[in-house]
Amino acid sequence: MSAAFETRTDSLVASTGEARDFFALLKPRVMSLVVVTALTGMATAPGSVHPVLALAALIAIAVGAGASGCLNMWYDADIDALMSRTAKRPIPAGRILPSEALAFGLTLSVGSVLVLGLIANALAAFMLAFTIFFYAVVYSMWLKRWTPQNIVIGGAAGAFPPMIGEAVVTGDFGWHSLVLFAIIFLWTPPHFWALALVKSGDYERAGIPMMPNVAGPAATRRQIVLYSLIMAPVAVLPALMGFGGLLYLAVSVTTGLAMIWLSIQVWRRTEGKPAVKAAWSLFGFSILYLFLLFAVLLVENGLGLMWALPKVIG
């Protein structure tokens, strides 16, 4: 059972947490990725929004993402304490009380949704609220501890920000942000399963049914290759659909091939240090891969530096 539901008398105890500990609860690395992908959703959306409103909306989306990360850390404090990668987080390390994290996360959740609704529109606010609910409840409280498909289904939470960004601009969402959603959704399994191959012992101690612990490393490696093979061509779609230019086409093709090559190395190298090195290489490059795709789209659409693909007359 999660530490969030433990009976404790911490209401009379003051935490030793500093401002940086509360900031750490927001998962700033994840939050920064949400900012980039949501901003890309705004930049590629058909239409425009006042820069001040766009900035305010982006801050609200970032705070909402941080709130969901905070609620995730609150609920997962018990299993975080069992894993070397997460044992030093503020709650399992004892610097922040679970009750404080819960209050902090709920306050930021409600505040970010209300602000986004006031400065943007109801659809954007609803989608932000649904994203927080999906990550904090559907993924953290249910999928993560129940199924090895936790990362696959739960990956939708990380893929919603471009749709929220487009909704801020247009009050709706269409194919632009749906394609961006698909890229992030397909990227999530190879990214996290590469890490899970290395940290499978941590997940086993915590009782989390990650793919390598349930289906085995060999099956996980095959699925990493499969998802990479599907993801790479999907990532080219923005160029083919006209909201990515020649630069995006070049970057998406070359980095997509690199992702496939690295995933094949993970599949081939199954023992010892070479296997660990291959998994870490894929994990590290996958972060750069997603950042490059969205950064190029931002440059092309946000700064108007797009060189469009030549039209073929049939």
What structural class is derived from the secondary structure elements? mainly alpha
Q: What is the overall number of helices?
A: 15
Instruction: Determine the N-to-C terminus distance.
Output: 62 Å
Order of helix and strand elements from N to C terminus: HHHHHHHHHHHHHHH
On the 0 to 100 scale, the average pLDDT is: 91
**How much beta, percentage-wise?**
under 5%
Overall number of structural domains: 2
> In percent, how helical is the residue content?
over 70%
- Name of the top-level CATH class of the largest domain: Mainly Alpha
Q: From the 3D structure, determine the CATH topology of the largest domain.
A: Tetracycline Repressor, domain 2
How big is the Rg? 20 Å
Shape type: flat
CATH architecture of the largest domain: Orthogonal Bundle
Parts with pLDDT < 50 across at least 5 consecutive residues: 1-12
Total strand count, please? 0
Largest sheet: none
Structure commentary:
It catalyses: heme b + (2E,6E)-farnesyl diphosphate + H2O = Fe(II)-heme o + diphosphate. The chain crosses the membrane at residues 30-47, 53-75, 96-116, 122-143, 150-169, 175-198, 224-241, 247-267, 279-299. GO terms for molecular function: protoheme IX farnesyltransferase activity. By secondary structure, the chain is mainly α. The chain contains 15 helices and no strands. The chain has 2 domains: 16-173, Orthogonal Bundle (Tetracycline Repressor, domain 2); 175-307. The protein has helices at 19-24, 28-44, 51-75, 77-80, 98-119, 122-146, 150-159, 161-170, 175-198, 200-206, 211-214, 217-234, 237-241, 246-268, 272-302. The protein is flat and about 50 Å long. Mean pLDDT is 91; it is low at 1-12.
